[in-house]
């Protein structure tokens, strides 16, 4: 009995962690360099503000949980729970956000400058197919937000032709980069530590800025398109699902693919599709 009570107390203490679950699944066992197992918890990067913990869903992951937005110290004792319920309702989201994350199409990887890394002829075909697919869904898309990098801009230009009237916004936050050191590491891609430091904070900022439950003032469900890059999308998916973000490189995305995230009013997140290119003929699918 005492053991069960200890477990319950531990669970209660851990349940208040913010983004703790994101860093809870780091492998513990045989170290990469061999030798005895090291059971020390791996500390998350400081810029995430997260603490190591156990795998419980953090309902306030986007800092928009209604109760967290109310200053309970200013609560009127006389009006009691009626006032609290009214204030909670004021902050509650009512709509669902549908987030469509599109990876740019195939591009010329050998361009010496970023502006020279334009779409290939096949890449332009892929963007056409992605645009047709999005248009065929019959959804009322609210906006397109795209990376400011050349390959994302050109992909957006083509997709936008199939979605007339949908506004578009460019942002540097969604530019490609190294979000966080992957685990397990890979031998073919090893950025300098400073790149993780610079890119990681920016990509995390993109996640916090764009991925969250709907504003309480939003009355209708929204359908939003984000056209960017594989590393950014994979990191966002891991963060949104509260999976360890270090696992982002274990996912793979084709060019022009569609990833669909759903964020409910209560903050629950679901992944409808990951890297869908089933609408493309097999000979048009690439991953470069």
Summarize the structure.
By secondary structure, the protein is an alpha/beta fold. 28% of the residues lie in helices and 13% in strands.
Overview of this protein structure:
By secondary structure, the protein is α/β, with parallel strands linked by helices. It contains six helices and six strands; from the N terminus they run ααβαβαβαβαββ. The chain has helices at residues 2-14, 80-91, 121-136, 150-161, 193-210, 230-240; strands at 97-103, 143-147, 167-171, 222-228, 258-263, 269-276. It has a six-stranded mixed β-sheet, sandwiched between helices. A hairpin with a 5-residue loop joins strand 5 and strand 6 (269-276). It is globular and about 65 Å long.
Q: What does the average pLDDT come to?
A: 84
Q: Could you give the order of the helices and strands?
A: HHEHEHEHEHEE
Q: In terms of structural class, how would the helical and strand content be classed?
A: alpha/beta
Strand order of the largest sheet: 3-2-4-1-5-6
How many helices in DSSP terms? Answer: 6
Helix share, percent: 25-40%
Are there runs of 5+ residues with pLDDT below 50, and where?
Answer: 1-41
How large, in whole angstroms, is the Cα Rg? 21 Å
Distance between the termini: 56 Å
Instruction: State the major sheet.
Output: 6 strands, mixed
Overall morphology = globular
User: What fraction of the residues are assigned to beta strands by DSSP?
Assistant: 5-15%
């Amino acid at each position: 009995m005492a053991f069960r009570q200890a477990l319950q107390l531990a669970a209660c203490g851990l349940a208040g962690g913010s983004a703790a679950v994101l860093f809870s699944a780091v492998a513990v066992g045989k170290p990469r360099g061999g030798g005895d197992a090291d059971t020390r918890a791996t500390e998350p990067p400081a810029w995430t503000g997260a603490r190591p913990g156990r795998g419980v869903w953090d309902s306030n992951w986007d800092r928009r949980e209604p109760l967290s937005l109310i200053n309970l110290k200013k609560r009127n004792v006389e009006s009691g729970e009626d006032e609290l319920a009214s204030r909670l309702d004021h902050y509650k989201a009512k709509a669902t956000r549908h987030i469509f994350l599109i990876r740019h199409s195939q591009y010329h990887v050998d361009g010496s400058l970023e502006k020279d890394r334009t779409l290939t002829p096949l890449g332009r075909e892929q963007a056409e197919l992605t645009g047709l697919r999005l248009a065929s869904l019959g959804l009322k898309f609210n906006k397109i937000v795209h990376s400011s990098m050349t390959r994302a801009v050109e992909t957006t230009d083509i997709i936008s032709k199939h979605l007339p009237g949908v506004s578009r916004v460019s942002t540097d936050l969604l530019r490609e980069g190294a979000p966080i050191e992957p685990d397990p590491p890979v031998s073919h891609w090893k950025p300098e530590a400073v790149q993780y430091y610079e890119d990681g904070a920016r990509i995390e900022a993109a996640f916090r800025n764009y991925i969250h439950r709907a504003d309480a003032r939003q009355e209708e469900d929204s359908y939003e398109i984000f056209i960017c890059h594989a590393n950014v999308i994979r990191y966002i998916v891991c963060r949104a699902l509260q999976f360890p973000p270090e696992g982002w490189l274990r996912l793979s995305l084709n060019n022009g693919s569609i990833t669909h995230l759903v964020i409910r009013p209560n903050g629950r997140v679901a992944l409808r599709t990951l890297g869908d290119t089933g609408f493309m003929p097999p000979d048009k699918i690439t991953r470069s």
